[in-house]
Amino acid sequence: GAEGRGLLFIGRPVWSSGLTGAQRAVEVGRGWSRSRDLSAWRNMSAARQEKRAIKRETKKSERELQREVAALNRQEQQLIQQIKAEAKKSNTKATQILAKQLVQLRSTRDRLMGVKLQVSAAGNQAEAKK
Q1: Is the CB of residue 130 less than 8 Å from the CB of residue 51?
Q2: What pLDDT does 11 receive?
Q3: Which residues of the chain have pLDDT under 70?
């Protein structure tokens, strides 16, 4: 039957229901099921499912923020190289402009690190409550 091809709800496959992927994921917690594959998911308590969902979203946000921080670190290294090159040329105006950009970049990176810590703390707090 259609069991192996997709999620079923009242005999109707999920992909024909017009729901987005995120909506389908929410509906799985509300009773959508794939008979064999999601039997463990169905048996979990609602609180445990919510806890797992929160943890998943928290980790996803932390990874995104970490990628942004890594990109800023790469930009910082490039700026430092540019500053050194301009300083060798004795171009003080360009060096000052690049130095200001470096300071702004570092403050942005520090702010992102703070946000990452807050997201992590919020996830841990939400996980501990349930």
Answers
A1: yes
A2: 47
A3: 1-44, 130
